[in-house]
Amino acid sequence: MADNFSYVFPAIRGVQAGREYYVSMCPLRLLSKIFIFDNEELMPELRAQRTLNKARVPDISRYIVNNPQSYIFSAITASIDGAVSFAPVGSDNVTNFRMGTLTVDMHAKFIVNDGQHRRAAVEQALQAAPELGDETIAVVFFLDHGLERCQQMFADLNRHAVKPSSSLGVLYDHRSAAANVAKHLSLTSKVFHNLIETERSSLSERSRKLFTLSALHFAILEMLPEKELEDFTAASKKCQEFWEIVGAQFPEWIYVRESRMTAGEVRQDFIHSHAIVLQALGRVGKFLYQSSRPDLPKMLGKLRDIDWSRKNAPTWEGRAMIGGRMSKSSQNVTLTCNEIKRVLGLPLTPEELDVEQAFSAAHGFSAQLKEDSK
């Protein structure tokens, strides 16, 4: 009797590369029941997709649960390994001929070619919000023509996928409190106005912009806890106050605004407009606001005592730069923050002290090796 049962999907039939494919909708509650993964224990050569990165799933799941009125997903692509038949609604015109029902044998397997993390996240999200189960997601069905074809589909689907730049992601993100503060600051602060690149996350030598929006966004995340960011007005006011004072300590930033220097010249000769320094300054700002709130202009005025030149290799090599190139690793952000706090006379946290001691030990060992090699 089981042979008489089938999956039936309302579908639209199309043709790509001479092969039929079908577009349909699937209720979220059925997604995990119908679509399967390859056995992750198989060697990559015997699988049709990458293994599931389980660390990504909770983030996607929270996105669904936290935005039940506005979440959005692109279609899942799947291959059908089994018998199928398509019954058009009618054949009196092209439109009706393409619309119909797709019948799939109950014993067929549905293998996800693209969208396995969305599928897993939906399954997890429904445990917290089962009411979303009747909502749907688009599915594109292809017929399975063997493992080689499935692997080629995976490669082709991901061949031209390009993740948008971090700056553009911040610009278009209206949910993130930090993104909203960063965008507001880029428009209203005289320090950043007209000097923020909002589309790219790296700056060319000829760019007239001095900072990227993503760098400012990361600096704000370092400066303000998530709870403070929820109050947009207060968060914007605090950021405005802090960065106006900071900006006054860098003559080169002012020279760029006044067209006395180009942004490219500043980035080439100094490190203080790069993302790692903005993040480190944001972390210093967080420490200052959480402490006894000293005289900020007086305290931050000591930033002028720091030699921010790229040529100051004894200070910045290994701390903000690796081999003469800027580094944005979390460890380098901490080491840069430590140097700023040292000049400002601020104590290090236990975590910062651990990183500093490890750096000092490694730096001393490296210096000894150079001495021994002479």
Automatic annotation (TrEMBL):
Species name: Silvimonas iriomotensis
A Pfam family this chain is assigned to: DndB
Domain of life: Bacteria
Name recorded for this polypeptide: DNA sulfur modification protein DndB
Alphabetized InterPro entries for the sequence: DGQHR-contain_dom, DNA_S_mod_DndB
